[in-house]
Amino acid sequence: MRLSHVTRIAAATAAAALVLTATACGNQAELGGSGAPAPTVAEDTEFEAGTTMAELNEAGTLRVGTKFDQPLFGLKGLDGNPVGFDVEIAKLIAAKLGIPADKITYTETPSRIREDVIVNDQVDIVVATYTINDARKEKITFAGPYYQAGQDIMVAADNTTITGPETLKPTGARVCSVTGSTPAKKLEEYVDPANIVLFDVYSKCADALRNGQVEAVSTDNVILLGLIEASQGAFKLVDKPFTEEPYGIGITKGDVQFCEFINTTLQEASTSGAYKAAWDATAGKVQPEAPTLPTADACS
């Protein structure tokens, strides 16, 4: 639950993300908007007293933790706000709460601090390419999933030796991922520990690949697609996904009512076409086929 409706964390962004802002997603980040239709903000909403929904509606603001360095899902624009599919999902939730998009405040939330910002009441929700898993469920509750990703590998465009995860160890590849992420843990099955390179944000992995410090970057395929788009032909996707990564929305542990509210909101967005519109305006620019909203998990 929120302890304060006025406390905010100052949003910061990695220097590398500023480079991506200038090159990725075309004019999307530069103009400060994704081009997705603005969700219809609910009016005359009534929520049960004491619920998170009632508190947020009364406050008139929503604090969202998201990525600032990931093209297509969460990339900081020149106006200071991120754009991408995750951001559009947050806007859909805010609108259902009666909160317009311009009343959302964003906090940069790299993988390693996603649970922390929820537990410490620094955000109300985290929508940040956030894979649902049992370890994270010990600290927070997930709504969703709202998207099904899969871990893959990104290499230099002229690389012909890395063709799947099984080729990483035999080739002695140095592979980059992000501290505290599910993909980083999964890499331990395919890469010698000494060859796993970890940074706090994926933009630094892209820089390491460009500079020859690593031979590959591994994370969810949609994240890699954004980095590939930003590379202007320097990188390519191996296109051999080897995991299933359901993306969920992180909230305070045990807030079942809020979880169920979010799941209902997602389902309504899928039915109305708002979910597809959010995809088309963001990640759909690189991966045109819109996903099907996954079946929601039980809230607990």
Describe the structure concisely for a colleague.
With 300 residues, the chain is α/β, with parallel strands linked by helices. The protein is 31% helix and 20% strand.
Describe this structure in words.
With 300 residues, this protein is an alpha/beta fold. It folds into two domains: 15-147 and 246-285, D-Maltodextrin-Binding Protein, domain 2; 151-237, D-Maltodextrin-Binding Protein, domain 2. The chain has helices at 15-23, 27-30, 52-59, 85-96, 114-119, 134-137, 182-187, 202-210, 221-230, 256-272, 274-280; strands spanning 62-66, 69-70, 74-76, 82-83, 104-108, 125-126, 140-149, 151-156, 175-178, 196-199, 216-220, 235-237, 245-252. The strands form four sheets. It has a five-stranded mixed sheet with strand order 10-9-11-8-12. α7 links the parallel β9 (175-178) and β10 (196-199). The longest helix is centred in the C-terminal third of the chain and has 17 residues, at 256-272. It is globular. It starts with 14 loop residues before the first helix and ends in a 20-residue tail after the last helix. 49% of the residues are buried. The model is unreliable at 1-32 (pLDDT under 50).
